[in-house]
Design brief:
- It is a single chain.
- The protein is α/β, with parallel strands linked by helices.
- The chain has 18 helices and 18 strands.
- The strands form four sheets. A six-stranded mixed beta sheet has the order 5-6-7-3-8-9, with helices on both faces.
- A hairpin with a 2-residue loop joins β10 and β11.
- The longest helix has 36 residues.
- The protein is flat and about 100 Å long.
Length: 536
Amino acid sequence: MLIIRDLKMTIGARTLFENASFQVNYGERVALVGPNGAGKTTLFSIILKHKEPDSGAVERDEWTMVGYLPQEAEAHGDETILEVATGRVEELPQLEKRLHELEKAGDVSSPEYLEAHAKHDKLNDPEVETKAKKMLRGLGYRDSDFNRKAREMSGGWIMRARLARLLVMEPDLLLLDEPTNHLDLLSLLWLQNYLKNYSGALLLISHDRQFMDEVIQQVHEISEKKLIAYTGNYSDYLEQREARYEQQLAAYKNQQKEISDLQAFADRFRAIPSKASQAQSKLKQIERLELIEKPLAPRKPFRFQIPPPPRGGQRAISLEGIHMAYGANHVYKGLDLTIERGERTVLVGPNGAGKSTLLKILAGVVEFQKGKRDLGHNAKIGYFSQHRADTLDPEKNVLEEVLASAPLMREDEARGVLGSFMFRKDDIYKKTAVLSGGEKSRLNLVKFLVDPPNLLLMDEPTTHLDIHTVESLTLALERYEGTLVFISHDVHFISHLATKVLHVNAGTVTPYVGGYEYFLEKTGAADDARAALTAG
């Protein structure tokens, strides 16, 4: 279906791939992994023919229909959510125009024509609206949302509608770039179950470890400018990669010892006439060896000990009779909630249910109309917002931000922590105003880790982080001695941290004193997601 041969790609002076090869066969589910900046999205662009490699070939079966979901997208014009999902306003007219152009040029047997015709047929199907509605419901839309203007909704909801359109078309090969970024947990479970039963092939970029463990059957890692294949899911890949490294390291050490022994013999006996020919033979033997490069050790999560925060009272924070509304939209009416010291609480529920609003109320960053917010004794709050730039001084550089947060920290200690969160060399002198979304997320995390509050409120802290940084954050928060309330759609992150679940839905907050698996069992959320697959 898809074969990449001997690919080479350079951007500026940096080589991303060299002699990189891999293939995806019909029905396979493959993850593409590697650190941020390794070239995963660039490889997608090459497969889609949006970029040309320096050398090498990308071969696709001429009958293969490819569907692509980018990380971000915007709505154009006045199309509704249902029109986005059916492609009526945007994609279908573009396909019709392109088909006419190719027909006029007499190019009706080209792979482009065949693919465009297949997509047109899928979107022109009389059942397309029924299929689109099913996909939209599975991805968290209510029926009342179908005729809403897409541009009135957030980028995350627009991405869901575009994903629904892809699933309606059922491409032979799905390219998904971080598809779980904008999903709530129930929608994520629905997509996970859908893809496990998907008949086409899947090539996926994701930082969601649990999602990959559930869906993926193969992993291709971008490492040392090559694409290295592993069989199994993400956890299997981690084990195999470690074993591969140990084997390569042993082979390298054995060869180095052999070279050292041969060189030592040559050095010892080359000046002795009776042994000179043997010494020369040893040197030639070294020359004939195919040298094994010393392998790079697999990147490990950085283990950082969060300093103990100041001890607070038994009650960290409480809300009493909270009324909260945005205009006519009443989010909470008479909400009562108490967070106890040491709890690790995750807020779950559909998008738009009020999770972020509740976190903002706890943080004291929004005004509610009625009720009481009462901080516990000696409470020190840290609020990790989705809008990372709000908490950064645009005039400070990265290092200055960290040192301002922890005045007692030495500069070399700050550099060490920043290095572990991928701020290296001159990165630490960048002004915060020019940082990317991912860099702002990582810098805010470092600030919390070096000067921790005793009540930490975090809204989607893993967004824009690669898998290794998520793992580093998870390990640090597992040892955090304060109280944690957070929102996340990363199941692996939630499962390792949450000891209590608050289900937020339709203005009601229902507590489940237990981990995420306990919540799923009690509510049947996983069963609901599976049932949605067969719902009309």
